[in-house]
Design goal:
Layout: E1 2-6, E2 9-13, E3 21-30, E4 35-40, E5 44-46, E6 51-59, E7 62-72, E8 77-83, E9 94-97, E10 99-104, E11 107-112, E12 119-126
Antiparallel strand pairs: 1-2, 3-6, 3-8, 4-5, 4-7, 7-12, 8-11, 9-12, 10-11
Length: 127
Amino acid sequence: MRVRRRQDSCFASSSSEAGRAALLWTSELELPRGRGQVIANGADVVFPGAGRSDLALPARPGRNRLEAVLVEGARPGRWRFTLAGGGIRAGSVRVLAGEAVAVGPEMVAFRLRGLPGERVVFGFDRE
């Protein structure tokens, strides 16, 4: 996998992407000096930092799963993921782990305690 950083944005690509279209997400980690790790469908990984990061993650038709782990953090905050383009089946966003404070048709936000290793997981269906 190749991770390319540009300012505050993260873009992931890998040779396993062949035949899969990228799904554009925005990660908003409201945790000063925080750093996270996002795993898409168990394989593709990106490392967004505090603030806003644009993520290009491969997504497959049908069920998809994103797992996010706080790598660095020292105090409570929030982590919000918002879809930047279409493709998610309406009403399919579901929280699988973590304390969700908001769930919408194309977004999910979690409350964080700010502890390294803290994990949030959500899924969605792609058309």
